[in-house]
Amino acid sequence: MPNTKSAEKRTRSSVRKAARNRAVESRLKTLEKKFLSLAKDGKSAEATTAFRDVSSAYGKAVKAGAIKANTASRKRSRLQIRLNKAGAAKPAA
User: Fold this and answer.
1) Is the sign of the CA dihedral 68, 73, 79, 82 positive or negative?
2) Could you give the CA distance from residue 34 to residue 32 in angstroms, rounded to a whole number?
3) Residue 25 sits in a domain of what CATH number?
4) Count of other CB atoms within 10 angstroms of residue 39
5) What secondary structure does DSSP assign to 10-33, as a single string?
6) Is 90 in a helix, a strand, or coil?
7) Which of 20, 56, 61, 71 could make an SS bond with 66 (beta carbons 3.0 to 4.6 A apart)?
8) 57 and 27 in contact (C-beta within 8 Å)?
9) pLDDT score, position 93
10) Model-level pTM?
11) Domains identified in the chain, total number
12) Are 38 and 47 in contact (CB under 8 A)?
């Protein structure tokens, strides 16, 4: 239990920020799963659109402070590699 008014305020603030971060992270996971399923199925046009959405969401999450910039950059890079492989596999098949 907080002993001072300022500690009470920090506790309330912390709860609000944690809820917002949890919502952002959940949204990122959902978008990423959607992209990965499209890339796996070989739907390159839809996967490209989904990649744009997830990449934008990572940028917004960094801007909001929910995740670190290097984490977002690493995940974007790995997703881009997946997209490139899915696009390359499509014409060959």
Assistant:
1) negative
2) 5
3) 1.20.58.110
4) 23
5) HHHHHHHHHHHHHHHHHHHHHHHH
6) helix
7) 61
8) yes
9) 43
10) 0.83
11) 1
12) yes
